[in-house]
Amino acid sequence: HLKSISKILGYNFEECFELAYQEIKDRKGRWIDGTFVKEEDLA
Q: Which UniProt keywords apply (predicted)?
């Protein structure tokens, strides 16, 4: 589905995926009941 959405919006899927990965790869946090909670929001 994400490939279809990116194509409709005129974006290259692989570039979008890489940009998103670079944005979130170093985030720290925990999974709580199936939801990722960032470390700074746990305090």
A: DNA-binding
> Distance between CA atoms of 37 and 42, rounded to whole angstroms?
7
Looking only at Cα atoms, what is the longest distance across the chain? 40
What is the C-alpha separation between 3 and 20, in angstroms, rounded?
Answer: 14
Domain interval for residue 11: 2-42
In this prediction, residue 43 has a pLDDT band, given cuts at 50, 70 and 90, of confident
**Per the structure block, which two tokens stand in for 25?**
């790869």
Q: Which amino acid is at 9?
A: L
Tens of pLDDT, residue by residue over 2-38, are 899 999 999 999 999 999 999 999 999 999 999 999 9
